[in-house]
Amino acid sequence: MKYSAEDRDNIPPVRGSEEEAAQKSTKKADKDDSDKKEKADVKNSSAENAEKEEPLEDNLENYTKNIFIKFKHEREQIRKRTKDMSSFERFKYIFYYYKWTIFFTFLGILFIAYIISLIYENTRPVGFSYAIVNSYDISNDTNTQVIDDYLTAYNIDHGYKVESVKDVTLNKQVLDSGSDETTTYKYMSFSTYCDNDYFDVIFTDMEGLKICAFNGQAHPADEVISADNMAKCSDRLVTVLGQDGRDAVYGIDVSDVPAIQAMNLRYQQVYLCFPGDTERNITTANNFLTYLLSLE
């Protein structure tokens, strides 16, 4: 069979012939060149992208510069537009166009100020902590000036905070009935506070004093008050039944002190008892008793 020149070009080479080997070599060389070119393109592309991408520090710096440039441009524009306006007209113009910016900026300042004040309030050390017991229906006419005067006398009226609970009910009949959920909850909270040495002193009547002593919500006075102060107010010591079933001094009668009478606690006989026995509780309780009774 005869083949034309065109047919001969299309006839595949005989397997194993030199022509087939030459074709394979050519294809391999073309593929290698293509792979090299592709890798070079990827490398060049990566290099170009790396050049285009700036470091994070440079991006932040440029961003900051752009903000200042923008603000500067806006100030210049406002200056040009309000050049011929009066002060009041200039204020109205700025407020009209920037009222929301001003509003949210003001809110942001208030929020930051609130957070700062909250942090300050919660991180200040406690200057004095107390509870008022059985002063039923206690209201804002309760006078705690004696606390303020004590803080001033001991130079802890600034930078310190006062913590207090003023509406605790320690009435045996009420507590036994358990009918008032609010009263029961406050009593449980009060007990927890006492267990955690929250209060330095408790102002109470006789019934409250007996309950505090019997329930272990107050320590015997000699565990908190120094022997010297106990001796100086020996005529004021009050003995009641304690949690261990024994009589002990748990209260100090301060009923005749003018500052205590001015507190308006709804009862005539006022006693101090001491629920906390930490170092701070002991120091504060002794200092307050010394100030109140002029024991120095």
Give the helices and strands, then pairings.
Elements (H helix, E strand, L loop, with lengths): L4 H6 L7 H35 L3 H26 L5 H37 L2 E8 L11 H9 L7 E8 L3 H6 L3 H15 L5 E4 L1 H9 L12 H6 L4 E5 L5 E7 L4 H4 L9 E3 L5 H15 L3
Parallel strand pairs: 1-2, 1-3
Antiparallel strand pairs: 3-6, 4-5, 5-6
Series of secondary-structure elements, N-terminal to C-terminal = HHHHEHEHHEHHEEHEH
Poorly predicted tracts of residues: 50-54
* Order of adjacent strands in the largest pleated sheet: 2-1-3-6-5-4
Shape: elongated
> What is the helix fraction of residues, given as a range?
55-70%
Total helices: the number is 11
Please count the beta strands (DSSP E, at least 2 residues each).
6
Specify the structural class. Answer: alpha/beta
- Rg, rounded, reads 43 Å
Strand content: 5-15%
